[in-house]
Every structure is written in structure tokens, then in C-alpha cells.
């Protein structure tokens, strides 16, 4: 018995170490807690966003706004591709059409707390990407299921300029009492100059039956989508950015939609199209769980138990 005790005890000790090291770090409460949808860097939560036209956003105005950047081999630098929204401390929502063929997470980085694309400030943080999850039902030739999630390697630390946005529940219905906004880096050219500072604009939601009458959409829009318009609609480069609405009863912003398609800058020929977030809450909640880490932990435990069994019977 004394000979068998040591390997068994060692395996038991190893299992304790594995559970300690492999156990997922506790995440702060997710999107329905008091810690989401706030703008601590802005004194008056709605004072600076009343204009219907697009303009430069204040520093820290939209602390969940992220820049999804991909590494370009020819230039040897990262380039902004799409926007996204931080929804907890390791997950970002965007649209599937932003990914294209670049599904390898090693090509990407997520920059949070960014105001000027090429001039990060002291609170700007860059994060590596652990995995990219694209909705399995997404198709390029339609607007259906245009949603994707980036999972980060490390947990994000919140500050005044970096905060998660709330995810809506079925009870969050947008009315005239809920001002809605879009934000992003438009990358539009004005007199030869490319704007690289974060832009914002207030938008007004448009009924789907109205949008379906436009030639561009041709009755193809479903209830999983939102139409919204403004005198200066979001640009194609703003795909993946947030459509966020303010709920004064709780003083929070909610991610009502994700920019899927827009008519371009300074064009009001047809409203912009947004993926309706609430339609994908089950998909979002399912993918927020780190299934890869859990699977690896279980596999490691099985290996250790097998080694313990073999050692016990050989000695």
C-alpha cells in the first residue's frame, strides 16, 4: 500500500493544481448588470449627441466602440477594417461580412478606447484575438444572420474610456423616447483628407415595410433586421459598429443593432441596415461561454486520471 500511495497522492495533488490553473477566471456580471451601457467620461449622458448630422465624437463618448484591425503583410502594419462593440470583458460583437476570408484570429487585433485611428491616447488598449465565431447561417448574397463574435486572449480592464454596452432583452422596445446613435471611423474623403477621428450621428429607425419598398432592398428584409436613417448615414467602412439606443428609465445605452450595410456618406437614397441584436440573443449567450477552454480542461483531467490508473497498477 505504501508503494501505491505516492503515485495516487501525486495524481490527486496534480488534479488539484489543474483545477486551480484551468478554472476560468471569474468574469464581472455581464450585460444586464449595473456595469454596462454607461459613459463615465461624459458628464451629461446625452448632451453632446443631439445633432442629427454626423460630427466628431467626444473622447470617451462611446467607450464600447472598438476598431477591428487586420495585419497587412505588404505594409507591415495593422489596418482598420470594421467597427465592433465590447459586450463584456473578453467578447466583441461585429458583423460577419467584416471577416471575409480572414478567419484566422492571428491576423487580427482589437483596439479599445481609441479615438483617433493613428494616435492612441493613454487609455487605448490593443488586444490579441483568441477566436472568431461567424454565424453558421450567414450568406454573402443576403443580409441574413450577419453577425460574428471576437473572443479575446486576455480579459479587458475597464476604465472611464473602456466600458461594455448592454445587450437588450425582449422588454427593450425602441420608441420615440429612445434616442439612437451610430458611431465609427468613416474613412471618408473630404477635399483629399481622410477622416480618422471617431464620428457619431443620431439616427431615426424606419419601419421595415418602408425599407422593403426601396429598390436596394426589394422586399428582402426580415424582422431580424433594423432600418435607420439620418442626413449623414454611416459609411461602408463603418460596418460592424453599434446602433445604440438610450433608455432614460435606467440611464443606459443598449446595443439594439450592428451596422450591416449603409447607403454611404451623405446619401439618403435609402436607410442603413442593421442586424437586430435581440434576434440573436440565444446565439450570443451560447457563444459567450468559452467552450474551447472547458473542453481542454476535461481532456487534461481524463489524461491525468488515466496516468494515475496506469501508475497505480504497475507499482
UniProtKB/TrEMBL annotation:
<dbReference type="InterPro" id="IPR043504">
    <property type="entry name" value="Peptidase_S1_PA_chymotrypsin"/>
</dbReference>
<keyword id="KW-1015">Disulfide bond</keyword>
<protein>
    <submittedName>
        <fullName>Transmembrane protease serine 12-like isoform X1</fullName>
    </submittedName>
</protein>
<comment type="similarity">
    <text>Belongs to the peptidase S1 family. Snake venom subfamily.</text>
</comment>
<keyword id="KW-0645">Protease</keyword>
<keyword id="KW-0378">Hydrolase</keyword>
<keyword id="KW-0732">Signal</keyword>
<dbReference type="GO" id="GO:0005576">
    <property type="term" value="C:extracellular region"/>
</dbReference>
<dbReference type="Pfam" id="PF00089">
    <property type="entry name" value="Trypsin"/>
</dbReference>
<feature type="signal peptide">
    <location>
        <begin position="1"/>
        <end position="24"/>
    </location>
</feature>
<dbReference type="GO" id="GO:0004252">
    <property type="term" value="F:serine-type endopeptidase activity"/>
</dbReference>
<dbReference type="InterPro" id="IPR001314">
    <property type="entry name" value="Peptidase_S1A"/>
</dbReference>
<dbReference type="GO" id="GO:0006508">
    <property type="term" value="P:proteolysis"/>
</dbReference>
<dbReference type="InterPro" id="IPR001254">
    <property type="entry name" value="Trypsin_dom"/>
</dbReference>
<feature type="domain" description="Peptidase S1">
    <location>
        <begin position="51"/>
        <end position="289"/>
    </location>
</feature>
<dbReference type="InterPro" id="IPR009003">
    <property type="entry name" value="Peptidase_S1_PA"/>
</dbReference>
<keyword id="KW-0720">Serine protease</keyword>
